[in-house]
Write a structure and sequence with these properties.
Helix 8 links the parallel strand 1 and strand 2. The longest helix is centred in the first third of the chain and has 52 residues. This protein has a 4-stranded parallel β-sheet with strand order 2-1-3-4, with helices on both faces. Helices cover 57% and strands 3% of the residues. By secondary structure, it is mainly α. The chain has a domain of 336 residues: Rossmann fold (3-Layer(aba) Sandwich). Helix 4 crosses helix 15, helix 16 packs across helix 19 and helix 21 crosses helix 22. The structure holds 3'-phosphate-adenosine-5'-phosphate sulfate. 3'-phosphate-adenosine-5'-phosphate sulfate (PPS) binds next to helix 8. Pfam families: Gal-3-0_sulfotr (PF06990).
Length: 604
């Protein structure tokens, strides 16, 4: 009966493997022949042994060939896996300017899966590896022009070399580990990833004629970070090229900071009187979806961070009158009683705590020992990575300007500046090492964000410009600045506000800080004077000048309204300074009035 089932077995085997089936078929006939002979023979036990031996060999041959065929199948799978891995690496290399940028892309995925941030997108909640694989597929299809995943990439190829992969010794170990744990990667929308966009842009700036100066720009003006100096650069560039600015509504100096930005805060948006905005750069609390409603899709987003230690010292002097600081005699006293003096729900207290995070639109209220501090920092970093093409560092201002120049494809002359909004030296308070540590702890969220972008800044310098070229261009920039100072400035440098002759060039004074400004060299021709004057015009005056240029009728109406409302102030308005100086003070009040009148209009 065993023999009778053999043909069936063999046919089923042959169904699996045709060649082996033929071989086994022949074997079957041999065995049948042997059985017949064996049964007729005197030595039939020997024949039976021989038959069993032949069957054993046949079965063994079959099992071995089956295993080999299984391995082949596995190998096919393996090749697909390796291909995807390779493509993933390739994709990371394409998408990043440094390994950190890759990690940041990864963290952006984490962020996108988290609901408590202000950034939303359609892929929230999807599994990260699904998204990742879809991106790999997408890159694959883009690279090959195919719609299906059929083309093989040699699994033996090594991934592309990563750039700027050195660890940052200042980075807390916990943060590094956290990043490694969250080292996923992937963007979930169709927009180009900012870091890859930047790399592509800078490469093209160096190599081909495809480098076109960028004129759609959003600069998130953070506080006490040299942001007024950058604003002046953007104002001058835009004015000289007749670009339009997304200026604050109702002639305000800020985009209704500290309220989260809304598109209606921009003059010309609700009235639809401006067709296209080029540059947005006034103080705002960042809110990407709303900003994107105003600015074109190809807009370049950048911002600047300052070491929270230096920043806090500057902020404490400047915003000394906010409730959180007002009772403290010095910064140490405030820091020692931080949580006791700080009530986050009191207006303006946000200046005292993680203000960088606040300006970028995140919740700034978190303690250094909070369980989720690393998580929150990672998510903030990821979101910034996703929304911004470039983050500059105040401590390396000149290097930052060179990087910006490359990113925007501008000329060296376009990024030249004088230091604006700087304090007189005696109002600087050197900090003790202990105080610095307390600040890092108090602003733990900002500290982590700063450390991250300080590191990625240098990776960008290394990979996109190179140390040598950076040095060369920084010295060219400083040379140009020195020449300009020689031509434009009366006293060769900044002076106290009391010494500034032209009231239109006096910077806004606030808090305990003495903010310096400049006097113009009187011996320069008209054309040079215009250029020099723009370089030293403080933020409030320059914003008003641009508003008047862009909205002459509205500006005239505002002046008239102010005159009608407060005739007793006419004298100070004629000088133009007190009105501008009070603008920051009153803008919250005006905003509330504006919001309420809108709400009332809607309700009626
Ligand atoms: N070029 C350059 N390099 C380095 N540092 C610079 C530069 N320009 C301005 N600053 C310093 O930036 C501080 C003012 O920052 P902001 O203009 O952002 O202030 S504000 O928020 O708009 O009021 C202010 O810092 P403090 O002097 O410590 O207060 C300025 O001195």
């Amino acid at each position: 009966m065993a023999l009778s089932s053999l043909p069936v077995l063999l046919s089923s085997l042959s169904g699996h493997i045709p060649v082996l089936g033929t071989f086994l078929g022949l074997l079957f006939f041999c065995v049948v022949w042997c059985v017949r002979r064996g049964l007729c023979s005197r030595h039939h036990s020997l024949w039976i042994l021989l038959i069993l031996f032949v069957i054993c060999i046949a079965v063994q041959t079959f099992v071995a060939s089956q295993a080999r065929s299984d391995k082949l199948t596995e190998l096919t799978h393996l090749r697909i896996t390796v291909n995807k891995h390779h493509l993933f690496t390739l994709w990371k290399s394409l998408h990043s300017t440094s390994s950190l940028a890759v990690q940041q892309d990864g963290r952006s995925l984490q962020t996108e899966r988290t609901s408590d941030l202000h950034h939303h997108n359609g892929e929230y909640g999807k599994r990260s590896d699904d998204i990742l694989l879809r991106h790999v597929d997408k890159i694959f299809n883009i690279a090959t022009g195919s719609q299906t995943e059929t083309i093989k990439v040699s699994p033996g190829k090594r991934p592309l070399a990563k750039l700027g992969n050195e660890p940052n010794p200042e980075l807390p170990r916990s943060l590094v580990l956290h990043r490694a744990r969250k080292g996923l990667t992937g963007r979930t929308d169709n927009l180009p990833c900012p870091s890859s966009f930047l790399k592509a842009h800078i490469n093209s700036a160096h190599t081909s004629s495809t480098c076109h100066p960028k004129s759609h720009i959003v600069f998130l003006k953070t506080h006490k970070t040299a942001s007024s100096t950058i604003l002046n650069i953007l104002y001058r560039y835009g004015e000289s090229k007749n670009l339009t600015f997304a200026l604050p509504l109702n002639k305000q100096s800020q985009l209704f900071y500290p309220f989260s930005f809304e598109s209606r805060f921009v003059e010309g948006v609700s009235s639809r009187t401006v067709r296209e905005f080029h540059i947005m750069c006034n103080h705002m609390r960042f809110n990407k979806p709303e900003v994107a409603k105003v600015m074109p899709e190809n807009t370049f987003y950048f911002s600047i961070l300052r070491n929270p230690v230096n920043m806090m010292e500057s902020i404490f002097m400047y915003y000394k009158s906010i409730p959180a600081f007002s009772n403290a005699h010095n910064l140490d006293e405030f820091l020692d009683n931080g949580w006791k003096n700080y009530n986050s729900s009191v207006s303006n207290n946000h200046y005292a705590h993680n203000i960088l995070a606040f300006d970028f639109g995140f919740d700034n209220n978190i303690a250094a020992d909070a369980e989720d501090i690393e998580e929150r920092a990672s998510m903030a970093i990821a979101a910034i990575e996703r929304d911004f093409h470039l983050i500059l560092i105040t401590e390396y201002f000149d290097e930052s300007m060179i990087l910006l120049k490359h990113a925007l494809c501008w000329a060296l002359e376009d990024v030249v500046s004088f230091k604006l909004n700087s304090r007189r030296q005696p109002t600087h308070h050197p900090l003790l090492a202990n105080t610095a540590e307390k600040i890092k702890r108090w602003n733990a969220l900002d500290w982590r964000i700063y450390l991250h972008f300080n590191t990625s800044f240098w990776h960008k310098v290394n990979s996109l410009v190179g140390q040598e070229q950076m040095k060369r261009e920084v010295s060219q920039l400083r040379e140009l600045q020195a020449k300009l100072a020689n031509t434009c400035l009366k006293d060769g440098g900044a002076v106290d506000p009391s010494q500034i002759k032209d009231a239109r060039l006096k910077p806004f004074q606030y808090g305990s800080a003495v903010i310096q400004g400049y006097n113009l060299n009187p011996h320069i021709d008209r054309q040079t004077k215009t250029k020099c004057q723009r370089l030293i015009t403080p933020e409030l005056q320059y914003t008003e000048h641009l508003y008047t240029q862009q909205f002459p009728e509205l500006a005239a109406k505002h002046i008239q309204a102010m005159r009608n409302a407060a005739p007793q102030r006419q004298h100070s308005e004629r000088t133009g300074i007190r009105r501008m100086a009070s603008a920051r003070e009153v803008h919250h009040r005006q905003f509330r009035r504006h919001t309420f009148s809108n709400l009332n209009q809607k309700a009626s």
